[in-house]
DNA sequence: GCCCGTTCGCAACCAAAGGTTGCACATGTC
DNA sequence: GACATGTGCAACCTTTGGTTGCGAACGGGC
C-alpha cells in the first residue's frame, strides 16, 4: 500500500502557515506578500518565502501588476493536492477497518475456543 | 472556515517518515525502534525520536517487554487524526467548488452582457 | 523634475526539527 | 561470566520556518 504521495505537493500543503495562505488566497481571489502578511502572524518576508515554495510546487502563480506581485491559486493543481490528501485518508481508513475486522474475527474465534473448553 | 485542526496531531502525521512508520505498525501489529528502522531508510535513533513524537501525540503506546520496547498504534486516536485529515480535504474541496461555481456564474453573466451589446 | 511613501528582493542571522555518529547501559543467551 | 542484541543519551550537522536590516524599483503629489 504505502500511500504513494507526491512529496513536494504534500510538504507544500503540510505547513500550517501555507495552508492558511492558500485559504486566504482562495477566499480573496489572490493577494500579494504584503497583503497576506497583514492577516497572518508572520512577516512579509516569511510570507514571500512560503509563496516561493507554493510557486515551485505549482500551487500558485504570480503575475506582476504595476509594482505589485500578485499571486493566485492554481485551482487545478490544488485540486490534485486535495485529492492526494483524501486518498491518504482513505487508505488509512481502509486499513483501520481491515484491522478492526481481523480483531473481531480473532475475538469470535477465541469465544468459540472458550466455549469448547 | 480556516480548517481548525488540532495542530499536534496534524504535524505528527505530517511527516512522511512518521506516516510510513504508522503504516508499518498497522501492517505488522506493532514493532520496536530497531525492527522499524530495518525497513526504513533512517537509523534506529531517528525512528526512536519519531516514536517519541507519535507517543506524545497519543498516536502510539509503548509497552516494555523484556529488553524490548514494543509500540502499538492507538487506533482510536489515529482514527481521529484521519478524520481531521479528511475534514481539511473536504473543506478545501467545498471551497474549490464554490469558487468554480462563482467563476461559471460570472462567465454566464459576461456572455449575456456580450449578447446585449 | 523631484521627493516621499510603498512594495519588493536580497543577505545575514536565529531557532527548531529531522537525521547522523558515537558511546554507555541493560538484558537475554550460551 | 562472556557475548550479542536492544535501548537510551549526548553531540553534532543540515534543512527549514522565521526574523531583522538593508538597498532598489515604482507611483503619486508638489
UniProtKB/TrEMBL annotation, chains A, B:
SUPFAM superfamilies: Winged helix' DNA-binding domain. This is Metalloregulator ArsR/SmtB family transcription factor. Pfam families: HTH_20. CDD domains: HTH_ARSR (cd00090). The lineage of its organism: Bacteria, Bacillati, Actinomycetota, Actinomycetes, Streptosporangiales. InterPro entries: ArsR-like_HTH, HTH_ArsR_DNA-bd_dom, WH-like_DNA-bd_sf, WH_DNA-bd_sf. Residues 1-93 form the HTH arsR-type domain. PROSITE patterns: HTH_ARSR_2. It comes from the Bacteria. SMART domains: HTH_ARSR.
Amino acid at each position: 500500500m504505502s500511500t504513494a504521495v507526491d512529496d513536494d505537493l504534500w510538504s507544500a500543503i503540510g505547513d500550517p502557515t501555507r495552508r492558511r495562505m492558500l485559504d486566504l488566497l482562495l477566499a480573496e481571489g489572490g493577494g500579494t506578500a504584503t497583503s497576506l502578511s497583514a492577516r497572518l502572524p508572520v512577516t512579509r518576508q516569511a510570507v514571500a518565502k512560503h509563496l516561493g515554495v507554493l510557486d515551485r510546487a505549482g500551487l500558485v502563480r504570480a503575475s506582476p501588476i504595476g509594482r505589485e506581485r500578485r499571486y493566485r491559486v492554481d485551482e487545478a493543481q490544488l485540486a490534485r493536492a486535495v485529492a492526494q490528501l483524501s486518498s491518504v485518508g482513505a487508505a488509512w481508513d481502509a486499513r483501520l477497518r481491515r484491522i478492526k475486522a481481523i480483531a473481531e474475527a480473532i475475538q469470535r474465534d477465541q469465544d468459540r475456543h472458550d466455549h469448547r473448553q
